[in-house]
Specification:
InterPro entries: Diverse_Catalytic_Enzymes (IPR051094), HD/PDEase_dom (IPR003607), HD_domain (IPR006674), PHydrolase_assoc_dom (IPR026875). GO terms for molecular function: dGTPase activity. This is dGTP triphosphohydrolase. It is a single chain. The chain has about 350 residues and is an all-alpha fold. It has a single domain, classed as Hypothetical protein af1432. About 60% of the residues lie in helices and about 0% in strands. It contains 16 helices and no strands.
């Protein structure tokens, strides 16, 4: 018996029957020989961590554009916080922690530079729109590994595709995927409040009192409330024969209200409007440049431009750029250099 089989036997002993067992995976689009040590979901996790797209997350904005303070979140630290929250919940319920980790680490690989501002620019640019969850799937199936993709399991791809929004979970094929979907919101709402207070753009007193009463008065209290309620409610559902994970009505409604508050006051509020417009201007100019000069793009994106469309190739190239790379590229293309006669 190899190590992987021992791990799979351990899954049989420790996971609830509603969990996604690695031995029962739906598999990959391209069949592979199984690893001697790692389960399929462990392999997926490692492929995501080793990818270029994952490394670029450290220089992609979470909310605050080009913030020089060391303590503000980036897209990478957000991803790690989602993984931490989701794994805690998963273990509390008895779900597959390795699958949860793989989905969580890969869920935002398709995010554009300058946070949702970049997504808005590409959404206007592409005829069929742009959604970062779909781009994340495109990254792991088509763009990574020099155009070969990472050949991840179908469970991980499904979880990545369906992680965004607070809507229906009917398209998510595993409970582990549902856990990541909710953990994403728990993580970003709390750390974005923390960053907003640190930046002086929000005070604790501005958070609606009813939300504070239900969820708590600081990040630690809110996360503790959300995580414990999710585990408790999910375990009650499972014990009562319902294959369903989630939060109680009161806690879920409070989180929805907190999300509305953050969108109104921070994400789409007037406070960051000037900086958002600057970011959009930079991306607009870069997109225009590569539309006029597609030969300046790397070969892979030229091939996509020819096989699909020029806009698709440009969008894929720009979507992969980090904030730092966009700023450096913009300066190189459009800011005059010192010329000494």
């Amino acid at each position: 018996m190899d190590v992987r089989e021992k791990i799979q036997n351990f899954e049989n002993l420790t996971l609830i029957k509603e969990a996604a067992f690695s031995k029962n995976t739906l598999g990959r689009n391209i069949e592979e020989t199984e690893d001697d040590i790692r389960t399929c979901y462990m392999v997926d996790r490692d492929r995501i961590i080793q990818s270029k797209s994952f490394r670029r997350l450290k220089h992609k904005t979470q909310v605050y554009i080009k913030t020089f303070g060391d303590h503000y979140r980036t897209r990478l630290t957000h991803t790690l916080e989602v993984s931490q929250v989701a794994r805690t919940i998963g273990v509390g319920i008895g779900l597959n922690e390795n699958l949860i980790e793989a989905i969580a680490l890969g869920h935002d690989l398709g995010h554009v530079a300058f946070a949702h501002n970049g997504e808005e620019v590409l959404n206007d640019y592409l005829e069929n729109g742009f959604r970062h969850n779909e781009q994340s799937v495109r990254v792991v199936t088509k763009l990574e590994n020099n155009g070969l993709g990472l050949n991840l399991t179908k469970e991980v791809i499904n979880g990545i595709l369906n992680h965004s929004g607070l809507g229906t979970v009917k398209d998510i094929i595993t409970l582990e995927g549902v856990v990541v979907k909710f953990s994403d919101k728990m993580a970003y709402l709390n750390h974005d409040i923390d960053d907003s207070i640190r930046a002086g753009l929000l005070t604790k007193e501005e958070i609606p009192k009813e939300i504070v009463r239900v969820l708590g008065n600081n990040s630690a209290e809110r996360l503790n409330t959300l995580i414990k309620d999710f585990v408790k409610t999910s375990n009650e559902n499972i014990n009562n024969g319902k294959k369903e994970v989630g939060m109680s009505k009161e806690i879920n409604e409070a989180m929805v209200e907190l999300r509305k508050f953050m969108f109104k006051n921070i994400y789409l509020g007037d406070t960051l409007k000037v900086e958002r417009n600057k970011a959009k201007f930079i991306l607009d100019e870069i997109i225009k440049y590569f539309e006029k000069n597609p030969e300046k793009m790397p070969d892979m994106y030229l091939k996509i431009s020819k096989a699909e469309s020029l806009k698709r190739g440009v969008a894929d190239y720009v979507a992969g750029m980090s904030d730092d790379y966009c700023l450096a590229l913009f300066n190189n293309l459009f800011v005059p250099k010192l010329v000494i006669n």
